[in-house]
């Protein structure tokens, strides 16, 4: 495992479209943003009732029940996006040895480092070893950006090892919605298992900042106390409840995203950029030429997510049809 050192600079994420527009001198409206992994055809938001803006959020508005049904978890807590939990969880443990899957979503390691824990990067091939010698193991399933997936029985085995000595397994399932059968949410009442979910990717509601922590009731009680009241605003709660209850949309969207993920894989492979991994919402291409490819596409108004370690690009899904053709044509010129 490799030690991770504290960095004071903000972490870079996908979606910095205004900065790209300024850097490349291309108007904001002319960009095709493939940098985020967000469903480009998100849940269609209807007009919100005026009362959602005028009242404080209420816990008995149906959101928790809709989420319990959707995630199959008896115990959960709504939070202001899973990022709120990512930052809060490290403050709920004494000094710990924390292993974080790498490459992965960088905010996890940053949050544990900021809380003065001993943090080590661990590759997918070494996670099994890390489960023996860590107090906390943090990973995403499917992983972002590699798309690596871990079988439920293996995850539960790692959880059992950690929980036996008071440890935690934290599983970020931000990209799990297309394959809910592999989720650990239904097991999350076990002590030491914490599952994070979000409406940002599958539902395309990243701006609403709605997420859920599925875990043992005592941990959720502590987390609720730490975060305080009204973690999710009332309009976002109304939208999230309606989206979680829209079962026909869930089924149709899972089918469509599966097909579009395969289509993106084939498109990239056809241009000599065979993905090394991915899931229904993004494809991940490892190449030493990633910075040059990122720049060449940006000069054509197409934003991808660039990673330096390892050198790679993540491509989200285009939409509508003209955006698929635009990406295809742009890759033809490179």
What distinguishing features does this structure have?
Aspartate Aminotransferase, domain 2; 334 residues; alpha/beta; Aspartate Aminotransferase, domain 1; disordered N terminus; eight-stranded mixed β-sheet; 2 domains; four-stranded antiparallel β-sheet
Structural class: alpha/beta
Low-confidence stretches: 1-10
- Widest sheet: strand order? 1-5-4-6-7-8-9-3
Order of helices and strands: EHEHHEHEHEHEHEEEHHHEEHEEEH
Instruction: Look at the structure and give the CATH class of the largest domain.
Output: Alpha Beta
Helix content: 25-40%
Based on CA atoms alone, the radius of gyration comes out at 20 Å
CATH architecture of the largest domain: 3-Layer(aba) Sandwich
CATH superfamily of the largest domain: Type I PLP-dependent aspartate aminotransferase-like (Major domain)
CA-CA gap between termini: 37 Å
Count of helices?
12
Number of strands: 14
- Globally, the shape reads globular
CATH fold-level topology of the largest domain:
Aspartate Aminotransferase, domain 2
Average of pLDDT: 95
Domains, number: 2
């Amino acid at each position: 495992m490799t030690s991770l050192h504290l960095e004071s600079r903000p972490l870079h994420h996908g979606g910095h479209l205004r900065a790209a527009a300024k850097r490349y001198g291309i108007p904001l409206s002319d960009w095709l943003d493939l940098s985020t992994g967000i469903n480009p055809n998100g849940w269609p938001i209807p007009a919100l009732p005026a009362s959602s803006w005028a009242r404080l959020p209420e816990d008995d508005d149906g959101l928790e029940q809709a989420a319990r049904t959707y995630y199959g978890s008896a115990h959960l807590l709504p939070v202001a996006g899973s990022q709120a939990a990512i930052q809060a969880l490290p403050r709920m443990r004494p000094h710990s040895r924390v292993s974080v899957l790498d490459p992965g979503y960088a905010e996890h390691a940053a949050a544990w480092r900021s809380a003065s824990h001993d943090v080590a990067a661990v590759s997918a091939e070494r996670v099994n070893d890390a489960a023996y010698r860590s107090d906390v193991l943090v990973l995403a399933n499917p992983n972002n950006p590699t798309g690596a997936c871990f079988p439920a029985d293996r995850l539960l085995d790692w959880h059992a090892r950690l929980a036996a000595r008071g440890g935690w397994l934290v599983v970020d399932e931000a990209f799990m919605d297309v394959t809910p059968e592999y989720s650990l949410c239904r097991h999350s009442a076990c002590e030491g298992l914490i599952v994070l979910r979000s409406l940002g990717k599958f539902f395309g509601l990243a701006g609403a900042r709605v997420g859920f922590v599925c875990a043992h009731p005592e941990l959720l009680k502590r987390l609720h106390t730490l975060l305080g009241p009204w973690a999710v605003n009332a309009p976002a709660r109304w939208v999230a409840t309606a989206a979680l209850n829209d079962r026909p949309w869930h089924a149709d969207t899972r089918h469509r995203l599966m097909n579009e993920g395969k289509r993106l894989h084939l498109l990239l492979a056809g241009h000599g950029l065979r993905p090394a991994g991915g899931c229904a919402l993004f494809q991940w291409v490892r190449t030493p030429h990633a910075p040059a490819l990122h720049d060449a596409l940006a000069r054509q108004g197409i934003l991808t997510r660039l990673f330096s370690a390892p050198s790679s690009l993540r491509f989200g899904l285009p939409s509508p049809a003209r955006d698929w053709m635009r990406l295809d044509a742009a890759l033809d010129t490179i």
